[in-house]
Amino acid sequence: MQTVLKGPSSEVIIGPDLPIVMIGERINPTGRKAFSAELQAGDLSRIPRDAQAQADAGARVLDVNVGAASVDEVALLPQAVRLVQDTVDLPVCIDSANPAALEAGLKAARGRALVNSVNGETAKLKAVLPIVAEYGAAVIALCMDDSGIPGTPEARLRVAENILNEAAKLNIKPEDILFDPLVMAISADHTAGAVTLATARLIRQTFGCNMTAGASNVSHGMPEREVLNTVFLTLLAHEGVNAPICNPLTNGLAIRAIDLMLGHDEWGMGYIRAYRALAKA
Ligand code: THG
User: Fold this and answer.
1) What's this model's pTM, rounded to 2 decimal places?
2) Is residue 145 lining ligand 1, measured as CB closer than 6 Å?
């Protein structure tokens, strides 16, 4: 099963036997005070720099999230999307909790974008899936619904199945859905990583769909976050998460190492190229 995304004049394919597609997470005000303040002042000048740096570090898709407190996302998200794609020829992953902002972002996006995100909540399905269908986009589907985030892998799988069925009604195909098994902080629950990994395995076995995950969420509140993030990305990849949302500046070389170890990097050229780029920078 292959998910095809497009930039202004580029194409990215996500599939089980292909190299991992990094979705760069850094255009997001969460935990970034300076960027939040800039967004609140309407200053988007950091975005081209962040976009270029992530692309240079191997990101193949860029997440775009401008959801700082009191920001008008409907106005700002399309501007941010245009700025990203004026800088780098990559598909965008349009990240907002607000369906109107998602639609405004889709209008501004060139190529074929990824919508971040829908979930199994009745209202979300109703608001987001028709937009995804109308724009012919792909979509990230979070394994949670009106009762919250299920505690077991089996219950998360049932949410995924429900989303697949609702999407099918609008002719959105399984290959155009990236499931997100949901990554929670390991500092709050030491079984959180295991539940996410088991969910990913079930989704891969049952539906064969491609998957994403916000890997960096796992390490909130813990020391040496990079160690935890790298280890978790490795385990996630082994369970079929082939398009993680992560920080390419810190995870780029590890991602290429994972590809190499999984047999997805002939002669290790991807790894060596990433090493050389890092050594030069
Ligand atoms: N699933 C999906 N989308 C998502 C998430 C997910 N989007 C947002 C988030 N989770 C993934 N993106 C981030 C972005 C930043 C961080 C974590 C996940 C992060 N930021 C640092 C902090 O908060 O401390 C600061 C980063 C910095 O200064 O560079 O950790 O799960 N579908």
Assistant:
1) 0.97
2) no
